[in-house]
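Sat 14:20. Reprocessing the chain from the morning session after the first attempt stalled halfway. Input below, unchanged.
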Amino acid sequence: MALIITENLTRVYGSGNTAVTALDHINLKVNAGEFLAVMGPSGCGKSTLLHLIGGLDQPSEGRVIIDGQPVEGMSDDALTELRRRKIGFVFQFYNLIPVLSAAENAALPLTLDGVTPAQAGAKANEWLTRFGLGERLASRPDQLSGGQQQRVAVARALAADPALILADEPTGNLDTRSGDEIASLLRDVSKKYGRTVIMVTHDPRIAAYADRIVFLKDGKVLDDTLLERKDTHKVAHVTEKIREMGG
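Finished this time. Tokens:
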């Protein structure tokens, strides 16, 4: 069953001779529990697609449907509730609050939503422990490695039990080993915990953790590839696809 549907999704910035088409009539379906990677050269519309799906931007044409509910026409309050309760965001930079502990950072979305500190803390601790940070709950961001900080960010995204995780270059600020750990973690989020994950990445190795890869160029879908997990050459396959796309 499709959790996310985009219909002729288009985003144009500016007007007249200065108009730039960031997305050009994108039609996608992403199933519940699927791990989708979005790839393409810089400026191809990857982040714009994520922002439109997450309700952080509005389309010029077309629409986004999340769990059967069109995002278009939602009031600001309804959009805020959608983002807070149904969508978790993970970015390249961790955006953790320096003076808060790992547990306090992970609990923040629930705290802002009016959940009691005890309940918010318990949920945050649960996710952090699952992600191997059970002994670092009281650590501040500056006491954690980059990979550990991104684990806190993923735990924060999951604290409210959203159905959808949107990850924009989540490994872009990490070394190779930490990047692989976060990509594997996001795969677990999809396969073990049943969340839908849409991840933007430029790295074929990271994209190969996904079930499926959509390649964008000039705001359009050039290719939509399903990856076989038994394919031991999946990274080479992704790299070859990128070469074919001219990325």
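DSSP finds eight helices and ten strands in the chain.
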